[in-house]
Amino acid sequence: MAREVAVPVELEEMEVERRTPMRRALHLLRRHPLGIFGLVVIVTLVVSAIFAEQIAPYDPAAIEFDQLQSPTLAHPFGTDRLGRDVFSRVVMGSRVSMVVGMISIIIGVTGAAALGILSGFLGGRIDNLIQRAMDVLLAFPGLVLLLAIVSVLGNPDATFREFLSDKTPIPEGSFLGIPKFLDALIVSVAIAIGIVAGVTRIVRGAVLSEKQNVYIEAARAMGASDFRIMARHILPNVFALVVVLASILLPVAILAEAALTFLGLGLPEPIPSWGADLGGRNREAAQLGFWWPVFFPGLALSLVVLGFNMMGDALRDIGDPRLRGSGGPGGGGGGFGS
Amino acid sequence: MRTYILRRLLLLPVIVLGVTILTFALFRIVPGDAIDLRCGISCTEEQKRELRDQFGLDRPFYVQYFDWLTGVSRGHLGETVFGEVELTKELRHRLPITGELLIMTVIFSLILGIPPGVISAIRPGTPIDWLARFVSVLGLSIPGFWLATLFIIFPVIWWNWSPPTFGRGFVPFFDDPWVNLQEFMLPSLALGLATAAGIMRLTRSSLLEVMRNDYIRTAWSKGLRERTVVWRHALKNAMIPVVTVLGLQVGGLLGGAVIIESIFALNGMGVLVLQSIVTREYFIVQGITFLAAIVYVTVNLAVDITYAWFDPRIRYT
Q1: Are residues B151 and B189 in the same domain?
Q2: Which of A291, A313, A324, A135 is nearest to B136 (CA)?
Q3: In B, which residues are within 8 Å of A157 by CB distance?
Q4: Which residues of A touch B11 (CB under 8 A)?
Q5: Within this chain, do residues B147 and B258 fall inside the same structural domain, yes or no?
Q6: Are A86 and A75 in contact (CB under 8 A)?
Q7: Which of A129, A147, B94, B238 could form a disulfide with B210 if both were Cys (CB 3.0 to 4.6 A apart)?
Q8: Cβ(B129)–Cβ(B213) under 8 Å?
Q9: Per-residue pLDDT tens for B15-71?
Q10: What ranges do the domains of chain A cover?
Q11: A111 pLDDT band (50/70/90 cuts)?
Q12: What is the C-alpha end-to-end distance of chain A, expressed in Å?
């Protein structure tokens, strides 16, 4: 009798063992339909960004059709104020959003992680200096800071632009299929500066609590240098947090680019950005009733941000057990993400 | 408590000064100024130099900065290079617009954020919880400036209605409350939706956390009604993170006002700062960021002080 009971228990233990982190993640994702929805949106975005040339039926910059045609089979999203195919622009815009968003996040989060670790681990005067600098950045109204940085960095005579085009191998013209890549890069750098302060704060907090652990003391007793402890012990332990922050901030960066371009200070003309399509002449036309040139790019932008937010929620659930199952006491737990 | 507030108050001018110095430095590292933009190609270099000399733009940076700072202490927040627009005077008709926009936005985000958050937290896992959470993710994802554009175009198409701002300009509340509310309703909704969604999520998670506390169990076992337990005992504590985030959001809202004001043709501070950045009128930008930083730092100090009211266990030493 006892043996008969033991068999299924053993089997179940084996089941548990076979659950690699990958499979566990998949299992959890299955429990988070909104996360799956987010994943589908993100995959669509990535595919559309990579194969934009193949998917877009027309050249997104070509002014070759009658202006403001309503959606038809030939132009599923209609044509815009200048006579460009809106669908092609939305498809190409996905690449622009993706590339600018990713570059901003990589620069911003890496910088912030470095600053946060230095600030939290070293403490003292360096900590104070970094934190006061972040206070100043945070006290700026977000978008105003971005606008100021963009108008400064993007200035045609700015030393930063000269440095990028002369001293680095970054091409002057189009790169990754984005025309005027240098301008896109400058906007990305501005957005990166905009997100540094918040991330630095959070990373610093995590480092402060990580620093209390005994293994740090042990490493120090063994003669490890500050740098070694930061790189080999602190960084790996805050890495998961940094990745989650990056996934949360990617949609923020994408929105920031669209907002800057919408206001006319972001990406310049030949770059097909959703933000550009939402503003300018299309918006004037929209006020006269031609809604499609602004509706579809905005819808794409919303969907992408929605996808990332839902994915981020699911990731946070899976990655941080403390936040998992905040279904409440007796509330049955689980549910749909968050 | 008093020392804590004192210490924060001492830090306040440091941060505000930092903001103005950063603004100043940012614009000075780039070649090109308002004179370049104003004259364009019509002026010779000689004329430009004379103009710079006349308006004091050729002096060393620190002299210009201290000059501006002295001006601020006398109530002159900054002016355009040629002096025809003065910020302190502009404030008189622009501040009420931005002020009303921001106040209504905060009210909207509290009304649309807290009640759904509470309902969602006390009925976790139910369809209403699911719905509230879905709508909140939606609200976080729709960019305010797209929503604002839709708010303008679809009422025109469907009902031939557009906000009275187009055509009539800003109407003060006390002149005609109905028209004024029509003007600010949609802009504040567009600006406040994302904040409301954030507040809803935060209220939910924070209330769920608080409901696990012992003192809540005590309140239940005293036989109090659910309404009393939730609204009187739990919510007050759960508001701490919400108020913190709202305080931090002030900066974001001020930035968002730049976009929303220009879409809805509201001639407030946001429009002015955008124009001034484009035309490189540093002193105006400087004055506005100075004011914004004061508002931001003060609001966040106030937030810190309210903690003690929300949770009497918090003491500052």
Answers
A1: yes
A2: A313
A3: 30-32
A4: 135
A5: yes
A6: yes
A7: B238
A8: no
A9: 888 888 888 887 776 666 667 766 666 677 777 777 777 766 777 777 888 888 888
A10: 26-323
A11: very high
A12: 44
* Residue B94 pLDDT exceeds 80: yes
Q: CATH assignment of A26-323, given 3.90.1300.10, 1.10.3720.10, 3.40.50.970, 3.30.300.20?
A: 1.10.3720.10
Helix axes A159-167 and A181-210, enclosed angle (nearest 10): 100
- Same-domain pairing of B228 and B165: yes
What is the three-class DSSP state of B195? helix
Asked if the Cβ–Cβ distance from A152 to B285 is below 8 Å, we say no
In a domain, B84, yes or no: no
The C-alpha atoms of residue A198 and residue A192 are separated, in whole angstroms, by 11
Instruction: Name which of A137, A310, A331 is nearest B137 (Cβ-Cβ).
Output: A310
Predicted confidence at residue A107, as pLDDT, reads 94
CB contact under 8 A, B14 and A132: yes
Q: Count up the domains in chain B and report the number.
A: 2
Is residue B44 domain-resident? yes
* Residue A79 β-bridge partners: A85
The DSSP 8-state label assigned to residue A42 in this structure reads H
| Residue B133 maps to a domain | yes
Q: What was the pLDDT predicted at A108? A: 93
Tens digits of residue pLDDT in B255-314: 888 889 888 888 888 888 888 888 877 788 888 888 888 888 888 888 877 777 777 666
Judged by CB atoms closer than 8 Å, whether chains meet at A139 and B16 is answered as yes
How many whole angstroms separate alpha carbon B250 and alpha carbon B253? Answer: 5
Chain A residues inside the 8 Å CB shell of B253? 141
pLDDT greater at residue A323 or residue A331? A323
Domain encompassing residue B261: 93-310
Is A158 in contact with B124 (Cβ distance < 8 A)? no
Note whether B65 and B133 are same-domain residues. no
Tens-digit pLDDT profile for residues A279-321: 777 777 777 777 777 888 888 888 988 888 888 777 776 665 4
How many angstroms separate the CA atoms of B235 and B240, rounded?
9
Percentage of chain B beyond pLDDT 70 is 91
Decide if B150 and A295 are in contact by the 8 Å CB cutoff: yes
Give the residue on A whose Cα is nearest the Cα of B150. A295
pLDDT band at residue A171, thresholds of 50, 70 and 90? Answer: confident
